[in-house]
């Protein structure tokens, strides 16, 4: 076998030691990188992973309440970048202007612009009067347009509009009929008296207001006329009226000069 000279052996030994040192450094670097990858990188990525929890929602800020991009009554509460889904009470929607952390960030849909976020949760315990737990709703009878119901926790309170106004389902308030634009109002045939059936059309005064209790002449007996009491029966009077006089009575009733003095129009028989 070949044998190296002492000087040559020392050179080979130095090269081997150098190689071993470089290899050890590479191994050490690889080991450190592996440790960093196992223990450090998940911690750096943790906020982003938590922010993606549930429906892939990403917290725009570490703290606060934020609207869901699709559902108007759903919002996300972010705490240290962790997103948690929440739902408003049935009938209410998320209001970003109330999302200051000091109060419930939900409000009536009439004061919140949901824009394209049209999705809503399924109603909880709906009824005929209250289709949702909270809100303002029209009478389920489409022919009755001058009342509405306020629903709170599923319990309703009936409220009539002022005479001549209709409940506007777009704003949750009472408005003029041409603004509320309801269909089917007053089209239910009223009870008849001696063959008389209440006309379907509403009677308006000169200002365009609906006359709540219009009167109609009796075509057979000119000493009698009919007073329409909406929602109840037709009352028959027994005083003589010409057509001109009837028009004067209607105008007088419309401006409230006579009607407030009457004790009960339902029993008005002269």
Automatic annotation (TrEMBL):
GO terms for cellular component: extracellular region. Keywords: Chitin-binding, Disulfide bond, Glycoprotein, Repeat, Signal. SMART domains: ChtBD2. The keyword Signal applies. It comes from the Eukaryota. One of its GO terms (molecular function) is chitin binding. This is Chitin-binding type-2 domain-containing protein.
């Amino acid at each position: 076998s070949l044998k190296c000279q002492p000087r040559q052996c020392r050179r080979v030994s130095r090269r081997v030691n150098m190689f071993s040192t470089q290899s050890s450094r590479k191994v050490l670097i690889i080991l450190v990188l592996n440790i960093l990858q196992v223990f450090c990188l998940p911690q750096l990525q943790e906020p982003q992973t938590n922010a993606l929890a549930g429906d892939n929602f990403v917290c725009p800020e570490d703290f606060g309440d934020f609207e869901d991009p699709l559902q108007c009554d759903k919002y996300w509460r972010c705490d240290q970048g962790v997103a948690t889904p929440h739902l408003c009470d049935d009938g209410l929607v998320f209001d970003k202007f109330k999302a200051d952390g000091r109060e419930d960030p939900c409000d009536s849909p009439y004061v919140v612009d949901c824009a394209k976020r049209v999705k809503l949760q399924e109603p909880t315990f709906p009824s005929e009067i209250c289709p949702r737990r909270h809100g303002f709703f029209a009478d389920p009878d489409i022919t009755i347009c001058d009342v509405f119901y306020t629903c709170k926790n599923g319990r309703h309170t009936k409220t009539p509009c002022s005479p001549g106004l209709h409940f506007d389902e777009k704003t949750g308030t009472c408005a003029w009929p041409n603004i509320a634009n309801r269909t089917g109002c007053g089209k239910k045939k009223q009870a008849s008296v001696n063959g008389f059936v209440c006309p379907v059309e509403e009677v308006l005064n000169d200002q365009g207001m609906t006359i709540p209790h219009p009167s109609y002449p009796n075509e057979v007996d000119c000493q009698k006329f009919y007073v329409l009491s909406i929602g109840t029966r037709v009352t028959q009077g027994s005083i003589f009226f010409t057509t001109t006089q009837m028009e004067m009575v209607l105008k007088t009733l419309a401006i409230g000069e006579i009607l407030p003095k009457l004790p009960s129009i339902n029993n008005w028989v002269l």
